């Protein structure tokens, strides 16, 4: 009996050690192969010294904890100490591989990293204004930024994502765009961050392979769950950006069961219906110019969260829409809430519009689905 228990313990211990050694080997092989692209590698001792033994915690989540630190040059940094390291260390590899090749004002800068056995850390520039969710969902005075500033933030996020899709030697799909993963520097310049779920593909790949859905509920593109909607592509990030943009406008979660009126439970549908009826949303102390900014963000977001990927714009077209006169932008078909529980009213509206719309290439030639460009009144090709 005792011999059997002893053998079992030995077997489990060996398997545990092999698994961790395998993960360590995988990471080390990757780091060696990508050595010319890598940021600075720090020892765990150096990480502890930067953070003064992890004294100043900025936050924590399922990934681990973030601590404030300082380099020898007195440059402030944020150090993400990864917890619950499992498998082959793929999340760590994703983040280092992705950020090691990126240089853009709207993407978080990875200064360095640490990997010593199960101890893994990522060293970023410190962002004094935290993450966007504090601004969008906050209720204090600091969160009350002007609509122009919020639009500038949205514009910067769009530029960052567009760079990931088209500005690198590889196509980088983030798969987790949400307010929590947008960091803000001292000037509220947004930085796309957290590339743990990111995947790198050839720039020639219009449709990519993915073995499992990835992302955050409320922002995840429907085609990652419902395979019959179309192939997986950069349009998944476009959808997530659209949901984020809706939350910037609403300054609330898109899904909120605690609102006073049930019609406002799903914000994208409620705001779409308001504008479709020719009504503005109730905003206090806003100028006419600010109303235009809000309307432009709503129209753009409504295009981004179309259910079918083929009907969403690219991020390049999103940037073009941001520069377009709002009078030349028209509302797309009504975005549905997921899962697909279409009410009688929704079904009636969809039937009445679909009969007059040509859905080829994701843009209608008549009716509400036209998306005019800034240069003339012909519709934009949103592919």
What does this structure look like?
This protein is α+β, with helices and mostly antiparallel strands and 383 residues long. The chain folds into two domains: 27-125, Phosphorylase Kinase, domain 1, CATH 3.30.200; 132-353, Transferase(Phosphotransferase) domain 1 (Transferase(Phosphotransferase), domain 1). 36% of the residues lie in helices and 12% in strands. The chain has helices at 2-33, 44-50, 90-99, 132-136, 147-166, 235-250, 267-276, 288-304, 315-322, 344-354; strands at 40-41, 57-61, 64-70, 76-82, 110-116, 119-125, 171-173, 182-184, 190-192, 199-201. The strands form three sheets. The chain has a six-stranded mixed sheet with strand order 1-5-6-4-3-2, sandwiched between helices. Strand 8 (182-184) and strand 9 (190-192) form a beta hairpin. Helix 5 packs antiparallel against helix 6, helix 5 runs antiparallel to helix 9 and helix 7 (267-276) crosses helix 8 (288-304). Residues 1-23 form the signal peptide. InterPro entries: Kinase-like_dom_sf, LRK10/LRL21-25-like, Prot_kinase_dom, Protein_kinase_ATP_BS, Ser/Thr_kinase_AS. It is a single-pass type I membrane protein. Keywords: ATP-binding, Glycoprotein, Kinase, Membrane, Nucleotide-binding, Serine/threonine-protein kinase, Signal, Transferase, Transmembrane, Transmembrane helix. It holds the Pfam family Pkinase.
Q: What is the share of helical residues? A: 25-40%
Quaternary arrangement of the chains shown? single chain
What is the total tally of β strands?
A: 10
Q: Overall mean pLDDT score?
A: 80
Radius of gyration equals 23 Å
Spell the H/E element sequence.
Answer: HEHEEEHEEHHEEEEHHHHH
The CATH topology of the largest domain comes to Transferase(Phosphotransferase), domain 1
Protein name: Protein kinase domain-containing protein
Keywords: ATP-binding, Glycoprotein, Kinase, Membrane, Nucleotide-binding, Serine/threonine-protein kinase, Signal, Transferase, Transmembrane, Transmembrane helix
GO molecular function: ATP binding; protein serine/threonine kinase activity
Family: Belongs to the protein kinase superfamily.
């Amino acid at each position: 009996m005792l011999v059997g228990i002893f053998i079992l313990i030995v077997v489990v211990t060996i398997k545990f050690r092999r698994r961790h050694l395998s993960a360590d080997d995988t990471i080390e092989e990757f780091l060696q192969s990508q050595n010319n692209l890598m940021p600075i590698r720090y020892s765990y001792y150096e990480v502890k010294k930067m953070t003064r033994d992890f004294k100043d915690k900025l936050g924590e989540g399922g990934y681990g904890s973030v601590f404030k630190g300082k380099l020898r040059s007195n440059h402030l940094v944020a150090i993400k100490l990864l917890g619950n390291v499992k498998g082959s260390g793929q999340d760590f590899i994703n983040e280092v591989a992705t950020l090691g090749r990126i240089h853009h004002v709207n993407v978080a800068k990875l200064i360095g990293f640490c990997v010593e056995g199960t101890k893994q850390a990522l060293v970023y520039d410190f962002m004094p204004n935290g993450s966007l969710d504090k601004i969008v969902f906050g209720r204090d005075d600091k969160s009350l930024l002007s609509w122009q500033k919020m639009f500038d933030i949205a514009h910067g996020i769009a530029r960052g994502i567009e760079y990931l899709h088209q500005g690198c030697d590889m196509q980088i799909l983030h798969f987790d765009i949400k307010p929590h993963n947008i960091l803000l520097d001292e000037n509220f310049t947004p930085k796309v961050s957290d590339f743990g779920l990111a995947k790198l593909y050839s720039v020639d790949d219009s449709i990519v392979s993915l073995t499992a859905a990835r992302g955050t509920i409320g922002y995840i593109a429907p085609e990652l769950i419902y395979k019959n909607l179309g192939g997986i592509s950069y349009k998944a990030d476009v959808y997530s950006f659209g949901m984020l943009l809706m939350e910037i406008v609403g300054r609330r979660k898109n899904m909120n069961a605690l609102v006073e009126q049930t019609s406002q439970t799903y914000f994208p549908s409620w705001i779409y219906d308001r504008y479709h009826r020719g009504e503005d949303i109730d905003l206090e102390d806003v100028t006419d110019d600010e109303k235009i900014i809000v309307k432009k963000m709503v129209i753009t977001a409504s295009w981004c969260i179309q259910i079918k990927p083929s009907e969403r714009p690219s991020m390049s077209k999103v940037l073009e829409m941001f520069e377009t006169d709002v009078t030349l932008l028209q509302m797309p078909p009504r975005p549905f809430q997921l899962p697909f529980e279409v009410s009688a009213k929704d079904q009636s509206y969809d039937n009445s519009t679909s009969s007059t719309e040509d859905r080829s290439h994701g843009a209608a030639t008549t009716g509400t689905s036209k998306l005019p460009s800034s240069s003339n009144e012909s519709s934009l090709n949103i592919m």
